[in-house]
User: Fold these one by one.
Assistant:
Number 1:
Amino acid sequence: MTTTSSRLGDRGEAAAASFLEAKGYEILVRNYRCPAGEIDLIARFGRTLVACEVKTRSDDGAGHPFEAITAGKRTKLRRAGAHYWEYVADQSLAFRFDFIAILEQDGITRIEHLIDALQE
């Protein structure tokens, strides 16, 4: 069964992919799943692979979408990214994590892109 929140998430991921493509990114994988977790989008931008976590909200009543990326989620993202890097990626490329927030409100879609969000 498809829920309202999963449809919202699907629309957000599609909007994020279109946003990245318009900026020159090549989408390589959508919803990469592995034993370590899931990455919403994996893209290539020049000589960099970019793992993107996308959070979508229909309003900001529950806080900013980035607030939903908890410490536990960050750990899972790092593990899934390490799995992709080890088993799939062209290791001659750089690798980073970006966050994308999608806010759909009153017929307007706002997109925020946080580049290199998990830098140490």
Number 2:
Amino acid sequence: MSGRPLDVLEASIGEEVAVRLKGGETHRGELAGYDQHMNLVLDPTESEEGAEGRSGEPIEAGGTGGEAVEDTIIIRGDNLVSITT
């Protein structure tokens, strides 16, 4: 593998990744896709306990009555700080 960013992403398709954003949030999920701008699509994983916000508290997925609903996450590439496999 060459180590170019898009090659690394291609090799990580289907694997669980942790994505850190400029605002301090961290999202975890299976890398389902990406594009040339490094926009990412993450699918939730069974081991995911929730994302963390700036204060370190969990960010709950949308839902009603406090019920956690795991949805696909689309992250814009210009908000990325790091991607860890």
